[in-house]
Amino acid sequence: MIIAVCGMNRPDNIREVSRAGIDMAGFVFTRTDPRYVKSELSHAGIIPDRADSAVRAGTEHIGVPTAGVFADEMPQTVITQIYNYRLDYVILCGGESRIYIDNLRCTLVPDIVPEVKIIKAFALKDVSEINLSGEFEGGVEMFLFKAEGGPSGRGEGIAWSEVAEAYAGDTPFLLAGNIQPDDAGHISEITHPLFAGICIYSEFETFPGVKDAGRIAEFIKRIR
């Protein structure tokens, strides 16, 4: 199961969380977001920046795949950030179309970043909205379904189980939305064959952009 943690922007905290057993570290590239990834991460060796001459081959790296989180960004900006920060994944959280994604891939592969993987995210308010993913089948490596209802529809939104039951596509998917530290057991009960893992965002934070590495490590132990 993939455990992705997105929205970190403090170098020491990122290093600590990366040692907690996570499988992907996601960085927000939307400047208006309080979790926006700041340039000092490249200088700290967290995300090696090709454009930064101060970053050398021996610079410390966090040791897990990295993802850039974008929403309705200009394609050239996304391409530049993927290349400069050597991102392994790009997570598209806006209204990006299939044409947008196809053109992005054609530009990146094979000449610029041939191994990049694309994840299309959907914020679901109703289970029927999962059908929107059909347009992107075959065009992305994974989907990310954000369902705020948690394990049993608590709060506002649909439950994770409803998403898993409704999804009939062929692309692996991640779940996100209202994942709490005590939800490990509920997540382990999801049995859909294409359920690939989860994405933690704000639920384990002590401050926007700062995650509680201890709680994340304990949560991962419970799942695995």
How would you describe what is shown here?
The chain is α/β, with parallel strands linked by helices and 224 residues long. It has 7 helices and 10 strands. The strands form 2 sheets. An 8-stranded parallel beta barrel has the order 1-2-3-4-5-6-7-8. It is globular. The N and C termini lie close together (8 Å).
What is the compact description of this entry?
With 224 residues, this protein is of the alpha/beta class. It has helices at 11-18, 40-43, 75-84, 98-108, 160-166, 184-188, 213-223, and strands at 2-6, 24-28, 66-70, 89-92, 117-124, 142-147, 173-176, 195-200, 205-207, 210-211.
List the helices and strands and how they pair.
Elements: E1 2-6, H1 11-18, E2 24-28, H2 40-43, E3 66-70, H3 75-84, E4 89-92, H4 98-108, E5 117-124, E6 142-147, H5 160-166, E7 173-176, H6 184-188, E8 195-200, E9 205-207, E10 210-211, H7 213-223
Parallel strand pairs: 1-2, 1-8, 2-3, 3-4, 4-5, 5-6, 6-7, 7-8
Antiparallel strand pairs: 9-10
Helix pairs in contact: 1-7
Work out the helicity level. Answer: 25-40%
Gyration radius from CA atoms, angstroms: 17 Å
The sequence of SSEs as H and E is EHEHEHEHEEHEHEEEH
Number of strands: 10
The profile of the biggest β sheet is: 8 strands, parallel, barrel
Strand fraction: 15-25%
- Computed structural class: alpha/beta
List its salient traits.
alpha/beta, single chain, two-stranded antiparallel ribbon, 224 residues
